[in-house]
Amino acid sequence: MTTATPAAKTRILLADDHALVRRGVRLILDSEPDLTVVAEAGDGAEAIERARAERPDLAILDIAMPRLTGLQAARELSRLLPEMRILILTMYDSEQYFFEALKSGAAGYVLKSVADRDLVEACRAAMRDEPFLYPGAVTALIRNYLDRARDGDKLPARAITDREEEILKLVAEGHTSKEIADLLLISAKTVERHRANLLQKLGLRDRLELTRYAIRAGLIEP
């Protein structure tokens, strides 16, 4: 009788300059069957060193750290290890920090005050290549969108075909390549080719940036 091979755990790097915070967050993560902390760091520069050595699947970075901040580390890690997912963990419920986190390549922004409620789901969302937004962040995105519209900012010029637009919308809505293929009666390989073309044409890197583009282009609601 063969036994099922257990699913691989998501390997996590945790960076925060307070050892007590790291201990508490580690307890939350290590108690989950699909998550494990494999490395810790006390500042942004050490986070980069540990990430290069351990090659984790996911990095959770505090914003306010010595030497390099979490945002600075996120920008560098996005360049060095583009396959690795990044979450920002912070005490600051700040629109400025939230938008900077998105620009730095983070897939989500989690408040320490509700980490016990949100962090595990944020980790899983990041590994599904989906953005994780807490309620205040959603409000900030909507306000930013409305401010841009009020100020007359132009929407992006149309640079994609009708089919690519169709696929962009479905990707932004969270559908998998297989689901999109089934909906549009094409192969999953064709969907992946269109998706790659979209990223190249629009100068974007991942699903999160495609979603932001789709919101700005009016394809989906924020």
From TrEMBL:
<feature type="domain" description="Response regulatory">
    <location>
        <begin position="11"/>
        <end position="127"/>
    </location>
</feature>
<protein>
    <submittedName>
        <fullName>DNA-binding response regulator</fullName>
    </submittedName>
</protein>
<dbReference type="InterPro" id="IPR039420">
    <property type="entry name" value="WalR-like"/>
</dbReference>
<dbReference type="InterPro" id="IPR016032">
    <property type="entry name" value="Sig_transdc_resp-reg_C-effctor"/>
</dbReference>
<dbReference type="InterPro" id="IPR001789">
    <property type="entry name" value="Sig_transdc_resp-reg_receiver"/>
</dbReference>
<keyword id="KW-0238">DNA-binding</keyword>
<dbReference type="InterPro" id="IPR000792">
    <property type="entry name" value="Tscrpt_reg_LuxR_C"/>
</dbReference>
<keyword id="KW-0804">Transcription</keyword>
<dbReference type="InterPro" id="IPR058245">
    <property type="entry name" value="NreC/VraR/RcsB-like_REC"/>
</dbReference>
<dbReference type="Pfam" id="PF00072">
    <property type="entry name" value="Response_reg"/>
</dbReference>
<keyword id="KW-0805">Transcription regulation</keyword>
<feature type="domain" description="HTH luxR-type">
    <location>
        <begin position="153"/>
        <end position="218"/>
    </location>
</feature>
<dbReference type="GO" id="GO:0003677">
    <property type="term" value="F:DNA binding"/>
</dbReference>
<keyword id="KW-0597">Phosphoprotein</keyword>
<feature type="modified residue" description="4-aspartylphosphate">
    <location>
        <position position="62"/>
    </location>
</feature>
<dbReference type="InterPro" id="IPR011006">
    <property type="entry name" value="CheY-like_superfamily"/>
</dbReference>
<dbReference type="Pfam" id="PF00196">
    <property type="entry name" value="GerE"/>
</dbReference>
